[in-house]
Design a protein that fits this description.
- The protein is built from 2 helices and 8 strands.
- It is α/β, with parallel strands linked by helices and about 110 residues long.
- It has a single domain, classed as 2,3-Dihydroxybiphenyl 1,2-Dioxygenase, domain 1 (Roll).
Length: about 110
């Protein structure tokens, strides 16, 4: 088996509200709408994030994204008015854990 890509997925209860939040946090609108109830951000070929409307499962996802400059990312969040905790300096990485409006974890590491 050869895996050539990955699409992380977050399940949400209100797709319009989620789209607004993810667009603000990610700094861009979705790049694709492959079907009703699903929006997608493609970060590179075969690498992205899907946000799907699935109210019965919403709020149970965790997505981890690698960010090259967490300090700059935090400044952008501050400028956009997105509340967030402090960056955590762990043993080998730094990370910032956010929650979307449904309570899904969206973790940025560097």
């Amino acid at each position: 088996m050869t895996i050539s890509g990955v699409l992380a997925q977050s399940t949400v209860s209100d797709l319009d509200r989620a789209e607004s939040w993810y667009t603000t946090v990610l700094g861009s609108s979705p790049t694709d709408r492959p079907m009703d109830g699903l929006i997608e951000w493609q970060f590179a070929e075969q690498f992205g994030l899907q946000v799907e409307s699935e109210p019965d499962r919403s709020g149970r996802s965790t997505v981890v994204l690698v960010e090259s400059d967490l300090d700059d990312f935090v400044r952008r969040l501050d400028s956009a008015g997105v509340p967030h905790p402090e960056i955590v300096d762990a043993t080998t990485v730094r990370f910032l854990q956010l929650e979307d409006p449904d309570g899904n974890r969206v973790v940025f590491v560097s």
